[in-house]
Amino acid sequence: MYVLIVLENLGMSFGERWLFKNVNLQINQGDRIGLVGKNGTGKTTLLKLIAGELEPTEGQIHRSSNIEIHRQEQIHDSDMLAGELLKITSDSQELPQKERLRRSLLNSLGFK
After folding, report:
1. pLDDT at site 9
2. Which residues form the ABC transporter domain (predicted)?
3. Distance separating alpha carbons of residues 47 and 35, to the nearest angstrom
4. Which terminus of the chain is more exposed, N or C, with fewer CB under 10 A?
């Protein structure tokens, strides 16, 4: 078991508002992790902390020196993308070009 990331007593606040406190987590090579929660509960903030884009209010983050962290930014206008996908797929003219665009949009959303 190779340890990639360790969070020790991690806490993050913005002013008086704490998103989370006392988070302890170890991520090992091969682990698959999902973050689930309501909007505003700190999922993206936790990922930014792990990636080193933010500094925690309290606690420590230890990262293996042998890893590179890459993070996909959120796409905030998913309704526009969904509408564009529907428009592309509903018009079958120029299919090769539209197929490439459809695949490109899906790829940007993380679909392979």
Report:
1. 98
2. 20-89
3. 9
4. C
User: Tens of pLDDT along 47-93?
Assistant: 999 999 999 999 999 999 988 888 777 666 656 666 666 665 555 55
> Measured between alpha carbons, how far is 61 from 88 in angstroms, rounded to an integer?
44
Cα–Cα distance, 9 to 101 (Å, whole number) = 45
Look at the pTM and tell me if it is higher than 0.85: no
Can you give the pLDDT at residue 90? 57
Copy the structure tokens of residue 64: 């293996």
Residue in the structure block whose two tokens are 């949009």: 105
Query: Would you call 33 exposed, middle or buried from its count of C-beta atoms within 10 A (0-12, 13-18, 19+)?
Result: exposed
Least Cα distance to 52 among 68, 39, 33 occurs for 68
Structure tokens at 78: 């998913």
Q: Compute the chain's Rg from CA coordinates.
A: 19
